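dude i think i finally got it to work??
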Amino acid sequence: MIQVEKVTKSYGQRLAVEQLDFTVGKGEILGLLGPNGAGKSTTMNIITGYLSATSGTVKVDGLDILEHPLEAKAKIGYLPETPPLYPDMTVSEYLDFVCAIKKIPPHAKKVDLERIMDLIKIGDVRQRLIKNLSKGFKQRVGLAQALLGNTQILVLDEPTAGLDPKQNMEIRNLIRQLGQDHTIILSSHILSEVSAVCERVIIINRGRIVASDTPENLSKSLAVSSKLLLRVEGTETAIRQVLQEIAGIKSIEVQGIRETDTIDLLIEAEKDQDLRRELFTAFSRAELPILMMRSLDLSLEEIFLQLTTAEQEVS
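look at this
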């Protein structure tokens, strides 16, 4: 749906982004990550046609964004970090205004407005002034304007910035729902949000792509060991005796007691070594029940810090 090919943007001698190459498939939710100044906003502005690239091309559904700007941009809905709202308009007045800008035919406008208001759940506030809405509802109105015109692609820049936890969850669920019918590029500093919503992430640092994969695959490729968190019923002495019989364990760390008569342990093995079956068999033979066993992959925060810090050290 979106093809970014060898895109470079420079401001004089300073490169904002350099040789970016990636694609976003139809119906995919892609997370775009990077530290401040890494080039995320520049990349999003180039994709939406707001900025032109110094070199390289961006194609939207096969259309070059510079050669066919009107046709390509008609397929894109953009929600910047600060929604482009007019506070002294009501919600209905503002969305009517957006329809006029997007040249939505009158016969299609009413159906489109009702469909989107119902989808975004802003019908109850349609007659309220935008300046009197909560931050969460303002974000919803911003999403509504991005969806008007039957857009197929959504580009969302920090869509949950400044929201409280409840509003954050509501917008996150809404993005997941929209992902069923739209291709979405999502930029956010809330890495747990990206991990929960996005199927794939691209990490940009100093204008270059340093990683592109699913969070799970990135975790596996960057991890130097495999870790398991266990909760076992029994004494620490008995549990350690069982673990001594299992080959491949690098370290054992007692995490404490969360339930009566149990011990929580962090087991570290060599990278790519799966000890789950051996652990289950050994504890079952010793009649020490395993009440919990969970793999501890690298979090997206750890992946992000590892990649961006490594890049800075190399520089």
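The chain has a mean pLDDT of 88.
im so relieved honestly
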